Amino acid sequence: FQDLFGVSMVVPLLNLHIKSLGASPTVAGIIGSLYGVMQLFSSTFVGCWSDVVGRRYSLLACILLSALGYFLLGTSTTVFLFAFSRVPVGIFKHTLSISKALLSDLVSERDRPLVIGRFNAASSVGFILGPVVGGYFTELEGGFYQAAFICASIFILNAGLVWMLPWTEENKRSSECGSISNKVTDNFSAKANHDVQFKWVTVGSMTSGSPLQSSWIQTATVLKRIKGVACSDLWDILLVRLLMSVAVLLYYSNFGLALEERFGVKPKFTGYLLSYSNTVGALAGCLLEPITRLYRHNTYMILLHSSILTCTLILLYSSALNIWTVILSSTFLAFSTTVGRTCIIDLELTFGGNQASGTLLGVGQSVTSVGRVVAPLLSGIAQEFSPCGPPSLGAGLALVAILIMNMNKPKYCGNGSVKLKNQ
Q1: Which residues are in the Major facilitator superfamily (MFS) profile domain (predicted)?
Q2: Do 76 and 157 share a domain, yes or no?
């Protein structure tokens, strides 16, 4: 909650601040794109690094380096300093992914969707409240700098909370939960379990060897884990994640402009509608417990049905004849996308093996970053034909994702039972 609360105070103000520093829209766009590219390439390596050196060390490092980035942002009085301040954040702002990996280490596979859903709900609440506070700071003289310093302070507070966690007890629980994940039978999990043994060798070498040797061992282990993901058969899960993320991004890409052109609504109303959707999404995270009980903890079927609902709602929005249809589709879309995001993460961890959760979550974040790069291009091309072009294209991509899931159904649900790890 505190992480996204602090970030969402600052992010909406970035364009206004860099414009006040005299940067052209092109320069501002390049800096924003560079941040996305850094996130794209760093998420896999940082996630894998958390598997190698441990969650506590990697989470503390990411939080403190992100705090440094936001502190530098609070001192940025030139465009160069602004761009420089985004470098540590672009590389190390993967605190939420590592936190999810930590949660997956601590809880059983049966409870993982519920816990990650609550985690996403807390994050969504922070994202709802942060822009409100950030908007207040914009009305103050030097408000951006104050917001950036407050964000850095929040990250330092988070580092203190991580330091205070009872790691000894959590490691015991992690070992208990790890025994469950050892039942995985696919090749990738075998590699992951071998890497866990290698991890303890790595830790011992880090404590006994020189810093250069430990860095080399960490790098070799990270590359070995990434190779394990590349050689695994997770392509269908990652492709579904990419297609669904691009579909949702296309839905929101020209949301405000399309509502103004199609129904003549004001931007203020669009802002209220987006805030309302975020609130519904936060509430959806709290409803995963009854949903998982209803589906008997069959994550694959929940993901399939939520994707079908998402595809249908995007189609409904693209063909809406009045604003009330848009409100209806936005309400249920916020629900279906929240459930879908939680289920795709759980399916990645279940099928890939809990021992390499940081690597898997990092790869998933990289896939989502690819979607953020591709979606604006597809949206621009689709808008040449119609304001409804982007959501219509998004519905088509969601349909392809549904077909891929149906084609691979035997892989996840053998004989009607919920044995997602069996091939």
Answers
A1: 1-413
A2: yes
Token pair 């282990």 is at which residue?
Answer: 221
The answer to whether residues 244 and 340 touch, using CB atoms and an 8 Å cutoff, is yes
**Each residue of 43-59: b (16+ CB within 10 Å) or e?**
bbbbbbbbbbbbbbebb
Residues 351 and 254 reside in one and the same domain: yes
Distance CA 194, CA 210 (A): 24
Tens of pLDDT, residue by residue over 14-62, are 877 888 888 887 787 778 778 878 888 888 888 888 888 888 889 999 9
Burial bucket for residue 226 (CB in 10 Å: 0-12, 13-18, 19+): middle
274 and 147 fall within a common domain: no
CB 244 within 8 Å of CB 233 = no
Provide the token pair at 11: 């992010």
User: How many structural domains is the chain composed of?
Assistant: 2
The pLDDT assigned to 110 comes to 83
Burial track 374-400 (b if 16+ CB lie within 10 A, e otherwise): ebeebbeebbeeebbbbbbbbbebbbe
Same domain as 240, residue 159: no
pTM (predicted TM-score): 0.70
**What is the rounded distance in angstroms from the CA atom of residue 130 to the CA atom of residue 75?**
21
Tell whether 292 and 409 lie within a shared domain.
yes
Q: What domain range includes position 146?
A: 1-165
DSSP 8-class letter at 387:
T
